[in-house]
Amino acid sequence: MKKIVSLSFISFLVFILVLSGCSSSDSSSSSTSNESSKEFTYWYPWGGDSEKWDKDRIAAYEAEEGAKVNAVYVPDGITNGKLLSAISGGNPPDLVLGDGNDYQLAYSLAAQGALEPLDDYLKEAGFDENSVLDGFKDLMKSSDGKTYILPQDSNVNLLYYNVDMFEAAGLDPDNPPKTIEELDKAAEALTKVKDDGSFETLGFIPWIDAGEDPYTWPWAFGATMYDTDAKKVTLNEQPMVEAFTWMDTYAKKYDPEKIKSFTSGFGGAFSPDHPFMKGKVAMTVNGNWFANALKIYSPDTKYKVAPIPSPPDGRKDASVFGTNVFFVPKGAKNPQAAINFALYGNQDKVLADNINIWRSISIWKEKSDAIEWENDPVYDTVLKVAASSDSGHPALTSVASEMGDELTSIRDGVIYDHDDPAQLLQKAQDKLQETLEKK
């Protein structure tokens, strides 16, 4: 699910930073006292198997380097105000790992001056920027040219489809939909309506799972959303209008209230009651990690994956990257130790145990034999999508978090009230551009 920091939180942070005089020179002086120490505080965002894996790599690092990592589980720490409070209170962690789409929030925080630039620390650690895949380099640097974010690994989104349901509807599971037109035809063939008008099955719902992320479909349709060179918000563009208009065709055809009623009794992605696992939704867009959820909770479901369909002028075989990112908050006491651990922790040989569960992708050009997904049909598609020049990180701007809010609101206005997307997009574009210029 998309995680959003409100504008009021960002404004509050900037206000506090100004009052506290949290300038670059202040933070550097506060950092030098511990620069020779290997002890630092690290916030991580996840529990379950991922937490166990993270603790294992922490223990290995401590044993190898003689370091002391004060690891703290802080779920949603970026989005619930804890990080901002820690920064404004002068007691931030030294390192934070953001989960998936938190990269947009981290980028926004960097643009607001709430993160430490990492260039000197990366240089000291021997980091070579040229070893990173090109698709991640734009994320690492803010508009001032400094590096604020170190990617760990990334997820991509795929189209999952039920093989048995395809065959029952007379569709070829070896020929999944590649275009939006083909997706719509397949969705209609896979939808079954009861005599009382309720749904027995739905072929596809654009706005559930990864489709709920407000950037997923605009990106597939080819929208840019933000012009980096001109520093202009570009929401009211034709691909964006087409994306929302397309979603509205599903709303008009199937009624979003009926869809909500149909899905309300189902569980989330890590639940055996997810509608795809129950055979109630035949196709859905979700991350590469959903394959492991299916293995755990619905091992008998026969499914395949394909790249997300797109219109003729859209982004083919592409995805928004959901990148896990390391960053150092402003005022951190031991950023060098933090970056040393981050670089250790995102090596392929260290990430392999995690990648071999979730099928995520590494950020490095040179791959390790420790990653075991050779000839795996899901991972083959993951790599294909990750390698697409059209895959990337949208909305790399200081108003990224506000933009997500606006796009979600616009989508709801379009699918529930059938509002004109062009008018809503123009209004949001003007509002965000004004906010951007003030920042």
What does this structure look like?
The protein is of the alpha+beta class and 439 residues long. The chain has 2 domains: 196 residues, D-Maltodextrin-Binding Protein, domain 2; 203 residues, D-Maltodextrin-Binding Protein, domain 2 (3-Layer(aba) Sandwich). Helix content is 44%, strand content 13%. It has 18 helices and 13 strands. It has a 6-stranded mixed sheet, sandwiched between helices. Helix 3 links the parallel strand 1 and strand 2. Helix 1 runs parallel beside helix 4, helix 11 packs parallel to helix 17 and helix 17 packs antiparallel against helix 18. 48% of the residues are buried. The N terminus is likely disordered. Keywords: Signal. InterPro entries: Bact_solute-bd_prot1, SBP. Pfam families: SBP_bac_8.
Question: Uncertain runs with pLDDT below 50, 5 residues or more?
Answer: 1-33
CATH level-1 class of the largest domain:
Alpha Beta
Using the alpha-carbon principal axes, give the shape.
Answer: globular
Q: How much of the polypeptide forms β-strand, as a percent range?
A: 5-15%
What's the CATH topology label of the largest domain?
D-Maltodextrin-Binding Protein, domain 2
Strand order of the largest sheet: 2-1-3-12-4-13
Question: How many structural domains in the coordinates?
Answer: 2
User: How many extended strands?
Assistant: 13
Give helix % range: 40-55%
User: What is the C-alpha radius of gyration, as a whole number of Å?
Assistant: 22 Å
Amino- and carboxy-terminal Cα gap: 27 Å
Tally of helical runs: 18
